[in-house]
Amino acid sequence: MRLYLIFVQCLFGFQSNAHEMTPTYPVLDSSYIEGVVVAKMKLFNRREDVEYYEIEVFTEDWKPVKFATTTRLLKVGYNKMGYWEYKLNVLDSLITSKIRVKLLMKFFLNPTTKAYLRGLATEFGESTNSIRIELNRLSEAKLLSSESSGRTIKYRANVDHVLFSEIHSLVEKYMGIDLDKMRQKHSALTTRGGDSSDNFWKPDEGTHQLRLVCPPNGDPFFEAYYHYGMGAEGKTTVLSPRTNGDADPIAEWGTTLWNEGTEGSKEAAKRFWPKMRIFAPIVVRGEEDKGVRWWGFSRTTYQALLDVVLDPEYGDITDTEKGTDLRIDYGKKSGQQFPTTDVRPMRRTSKLATTDEEVNTLLESITVAADIFEVATYEECEKVLNDTLGDTDTTPTGSETTRYDNANTTTKPDVSLEGVSDIETAFDDLLS
């Protein structure tokens, strides 16, 4: 690891002009955040005319080091010892070339990615010469491999490199939220619940301030697909296997009905298609002691959140140091029957918590979605489907529509609005 030099600027009172610069060699420790190290140092103030010290950090070749900590101005009294502890971003200090950083993110976030010189120059908005220099450097270091395709050389990450896993992990942490995943989710929306435990949060009517938290996988949104109004009495709710991308016999039955093509079969099919509910891990301001909880919301709110996430003006709103809180206005507007959810980002950035220890505690309190969302198996869904239809076997008799109409069930498509949290969910249930 390169040697870091911390320069302490002596300041008079609140004056910003430095009187002198004193080099200090700090002790470097690892932190709980991958890619970040902690620089610890102390300084004794022997000058009566000096009251404040400002910290600047450089590598041995005089490259400035990016701080993960923002506060660098501290007060040290005369004949007093000052102690500092600062977090430093290792990736920015080790990789001083911005083009090199872009290339590492391009290739190491997705190891299957292939790209060529001119395409990279166009994508990054850089000259071909500057791109070529960094490609050559990374190739010489064996971090990239290349192959010829006609007159074009295509580059990709060298997955066999001994440091591949470490660099891949470091780049993921450096990126924070996975914007590619967010763009895919946003595109899917434009083209086209939880329980009462302590793991979940439901807004009361009024204004709430909360912070979206990003799990280690880079995706703060969990898309859950539910079947409502199932079973013999129409009161069973099932979390569809489609949530995990698996086959769902209830949805398959709905598709079978739809494919019959009659008006009756298409109307009956809608009951058996799952409805999407989205959940996100959040910290509610004023309730930080309850840790990270899951907030469930509708498609409309989901799209509003994705719009904020993808807005370059706000950057990574989940960043623990410079993220952005969200203002949630929830309630009935004049003339409306159901409450609605309005999402607005706050104007100023903020830390997730006051201290690093508190940040760490909150991050550790994130529950894994798979641990609290119990997805039904294919066999369990089959049983629920049979209970819904009043069947004891799954052998078709006559047309599928006839089978549905003759089923021993008193419930038709469930359009009950009991327990519906907002108007978007109500419409989802009615239309689906």
Keywords:
432 residues; alpha+beta; Arc Repressor Mutant, subunit A; Replication Fork Single-Stranded DNA Binding Protein; eight-stranded mixed β-sheet; 28% strand; disordered N terminus; disordered C terminus
What is the compact description of this entry?
The protein is of the alpha+beta class and 432 residues long.
How is this structure best described in words?
The protein is an alpha+beta fold and 432 residues long. It folds into 3 domains: 4-94, no CATH class; 98-175, Winged helix-like DNA-binding domain superfamily/Winged helix DNA-binding domain (Arc Repressor Mutant, subunit A), CATH 1.10.10; 176-432, Replication Fork Single-Stranded DNA Binding Protein. Helix content is 30%, strand content 28%. It is built from 14 helices and 18 strands. α3 packs across α4 (128-140) and α7 runs antiparallel to α8 (263-269). Mean pLDDT is 76; it is low at 1-19, 91-96, 190-196, 392-398 and 408-432.
- List segments where confidence is low: pLDDT < 50 over at least 5 consecutive residues: 1-19, 91-96, 190-196, 392-398, 408-432
Tell me the CATH architecture of the largest domain: Alpha-Beta Complex
Q: Residue share in helices?
A: 25-40%
- Give the distance, in angstroms, between the N- and C-terminal Cα atoms: 58 Å
The chain-level structural class is alpha+beta
